[in-house]
TrEMBL record:
GO terms for molecular function: alcohol dehydrogenase (NAD+) activity; metal ion binding. InterPro entries: ADH_Fe/GldA, ADH_Fe_C, Alcohol_dehydrogenase_Fe. This is Iron-containing alcohol dehydrogenase. Belongs to the iron-containing alcohol dehydrogenase family. It comes from Alteromonas naphthalenivorans.
Length: 382
C-alpha cells in the first residue's frame, strides 16, 4: 500500500442538534468577536438565525453579501471591509460560495498582497483567524477540504487556492441548516456531492480510507437526493444528504476529483453555469469514457447503488451504472445537454483548450485524456 496522508477539518460535529455545540467551540478557540460570512439567500431564508440564536456573544459582524460563485474582487472588497472591525474568528454559514470565501478571508486577514497571487498549490503562508464552517447545502464538502475556488473574470476561468491553511478548525454539519435550501440548489449541489464521491472512488489516488468514505457517500446520496428534492422538509433525507456530502468531501479532499470537474470548470468560467450544473451535464459523458480504464470499479459502484446485476455482462453492469446516474440527474430535473444552457457548439475548441489546462484534476482521472478526447466528450454533451 502506498503512503497516503488524510486531511480534514480539525473537528467534525454532525447530526441534528449539532449547532448547540457552537458556543463551546467558540470559547475553546478563544473567539470573542466572530464575523459571520454568509449570503443573502441564507440570511433571508431563516437558516442564518439557527446560528445567531445559539451564539454566546453580542452583535457579531455579519457580512451577508457573498454572491454565488464569487470572483477574486469580491474577496478583496470583503477583506477590506472585514479589516475595519476587531474580529478574532470567522464563522462561515452557507454553501460552497460562502465557505470558500470565508476560508480565504480567514487565511488572509493579515495579508497585504494580492489574492490572485495565492492561486495554485501551497502559496498561502498561514491562517490569521480561527475558522468554523457550517454548510447550508449538501453540498460541496468545502467544510473539510483544503481548497477555495474563485472565478477570474478576466481569464474567464475558475481557479483554486489550495493550502492546508484553509482547512477549518471545526465543521458543524447538520440537516436543519439545509431544510430551506431551494429545489434547484438541492439538485445541483446534491449531484456535485455525488460526483465528488464517484470521482474520488475512481481516482488514481484512491486509498482504502477514501474508498470507504466514497462508497458510503454514493449509497447515501443516490438514494436520498430524489427524496430531499421532492420534499425539502424530509429531515431523514436531508440528514443522509448532509452526511453523504461530508463523506464525499472527505473522500475527494484526499483522493481528488477528476475529468468531470476539469471539463466543468470552463463551463463555469466562460458561461457562468453553476458548479453543480456544469458537473451534472458533463458527468455521464466523462463516465462512459472512463469505463474502459476501470470497469471493475464501476461494478463496485453498481453494488453501492444497489443496482440489479444478475445475468448481465461486466460491461453491461458498468453501462447500467452510468444510465442510473443519468437517470438521477433527470429525476432532479437537471437539463441533459449543453445546448439546453444556450451554449453554441462553436465554443468546443475554446472549452477543450481551457479544460486541457486543468492538469491538477486531469492527473487524478483513471483514463488519460488528450485534447482531442476532450473535444469528443464535449461534442457528446451537446
Ligand atoms: N472548496 C471546495 O472544496 C469546493 C467544492 C465544490 C464546489 N466549490 C465551490 O462552491 C460553490 C458552489 O457552492 P454551492 O453549490 O454550495 O452553492 P452556493 O454556495 O453558490 O449557493 C447557491 C445559492 O443557494 C442559496 N442557498 C444555499 N443554502 C441555502 C439554504 N439552506 N437556504 C436557502 N438558500 C440557500 C445561496 O443563497 C445561493 O444563492 C462554487 O463556487 C464552487 O466552485 C468548492
Ligand atoms: Fe464539485
Amino acid at each position: 500500500m502506498q503512503v497516503s496522508v488524510f486531511k480534514s477539518a480539525n473537528k467534525l460535529i454532525t447530526g441534528e442538534g449539532a449547532l448547540a455545540s457552537l458556543a463551546h467551540e467558540l470559547s475553546r478557540l478563544n473567539i470573542k468577536a466572530p464575523a459571520i460570512i454568509t449570503d443573502k439567500g441564507v440570511s433571508q431564508s431563516g437558516a442564518l438565525s439557527h446560528v445567531t440564536n445559539v451564539l454566546n456573544c453580542e452583535c457579531p459582524i455579519v457580512i451577508d453579501d457573498i454572491p454565488p460563485e464569487p470572483e477574486i474582487s469580491v474577496i478583496e472588497q470583503r477583506l477590506a471591509r472585514l479589516k475595519q472591525h476587531k474580529v478574532d474568528g470567522i464563522i462561515a454559514v452557507g454553501g460552497g460560495s460562502a465557505i470558500d470565501s470565508a476560508k480565504v478571508l480567514a487565511a488572509t486577514f493579515d495579508y497585504t498582497g494580492n489574492i490572485a497571487d495565492l492561486f495554485g498549490e501551497n502559496l498561502v503562508a498561514g491562517r490569521a483567524l480561527p475558522l468554523i464552517a457550517i454548510p447550508t447545502t449538501a453540498g460541496t464538502g468545502s467544510e473539510v477540504t483544503n481548497i477555495a475556488i474563485l472565478a477570474d473574470p478576466i481569464a474567464h476561468v475558475k481557479k483554486g487556492i489550495v493550502s492546508d491553511h484553509l482547512l477549518p478548525d471545526v465543521a458543524i454539519v447538520t440537516p436543519e441548516m439545509t431544510l430551506s435550501c431551494p429545489k434547484h440548489i438541492t439538485a445541483a449541489s446534491g449531484v456535485d456531492a455525488f460526483v465528488h464521491a464517484l470521482e474520488a472512488y475512481l481516482s488514481v489516488n484512491a486509498s482504502p480510507i477514501t474508498d470507504a468514505l466514497a462508497s458510503k457517500a454514493m449509497t447515501l446520496i443516490f438514494h436520498s437526493l430524489p427524496v430531499a428534492y421532492a420534499n425539502g422538509h424530509d429531515v431523514k433525507a436531508r440528514e443522509d444528504m448532509a452526511t453523504g456530502s461530508l463523506m464525499a468531501g472527505l473522500a475527494f479532499g484526499n483522493a481528488g476529483v477528476g475529468a468531470v470537474h476539469a471539463l466543468a470548470y470552463p463551463l463555469g468560467g466562460r458561461f457562468h453555469l453553476s458548479h453543480g450544473m456544469s458537473n451534472a451535464v458533463m458527468l455521464p459523458h466523462v463516465m462512459r469514457w472512463n469505463i474502459g480504464a476501470c470497469q471493475q470499479r464501476f461494478i463496485d459502484v453498481a453494488g453501492f447503488l444497489h443496482l440489479p446485476v444478475a445475468n448481465k455482462s461486466q460491461l453491461e453492469i458498468a453501462n447500467q451504472v452510468v444510465d442510473a446516474i443519468e437517470a438521477l440527474c433527470r429525476k432532479v430535473e437537471i437539463p441533459a445537454t449543453l445546448r439546453d444552457f444556450d451554449i453554441s457548439e462553436d465554443a468546443i475548441p475554446l472549452l477543450a483548450e481551457e479544460a486541457s489546462k486543468v492538469t491538477r484534476l486531469l492527473r487524478n482521472n483513471p483514463r488519460v485524456l488528450s485534447k482531442q478526447d476532450i473535444v469528443q466528450i464535449y461534442t457528446e454533451a451537446f
